[in-house]
């Protein structure tokens, strides 16, 4: 395992999580992997597990969740269960990609939607009344603005 492949914060979170894993499950994870995580881990990390919350409710980095699920699939569960989980993940990814493809299909962006006939909008004209002020009122307002009577 390369040291640059895992962030120090992720390694510290994994080590903290491993402290609460039962011994029979922890024994399935190779000692070499745990030692590598210890070397990589951020020694100043302040991440702590809250025992009152479930693991998915904890404030864990997404990379930590991905690595933890990978470790579980590879080392802790049976081969058949791991394969089923991977197949389910692939199906979910394909479903999400299909939804994105349908939503953002570039072929349909510029097509006119023939299902919904558009009604032609008729121009709406309204009469507007324009009040014309007599010239003497304009002069009075201008003088008033000079002396700050009118605003």
Short description:
The chain is 55% helix and 0% strand. The protein is mostly helical. The longest helix has 25 residues, at 79-103.
Written overview of the protein:
It is built from 7 helices and no strands. The chain has 151 residues and is an all-alpha fold. The protein has one domain (3-109). α1 packs across α3 (31-40) and α1 packs across α4. The mean pLDDT is 82.
Number of discrete domains: 1
How many strands, which pairing sense, and closed or not: the largest β-sheet? none
| Beta strand % | under 5%
Q: How many strand elements?
A: 0
Give me the strand/helix succession.
HHHHHHH
Low-confidence stretches: none
Treating each run of at least 4 consecutive H or I residues as one helix, how many helices? 7
Radius of gyration: 34 Å
| Approximate helicity band | 40-55%
Terminal-residue CA separation: 77 Å
- Mean pLDDT metric: 82
Q: What structural category arises from helix and sheet content?
A: mainly alpha
Shape: elongated
Brief descriptors of the model:
single chain; mainly alpha
Summarize the topology.
Layout: H1 8-18, H2 23-28, H3 31-40, H4 62-76, H5 79-103, H6 106-109, H7 135-146
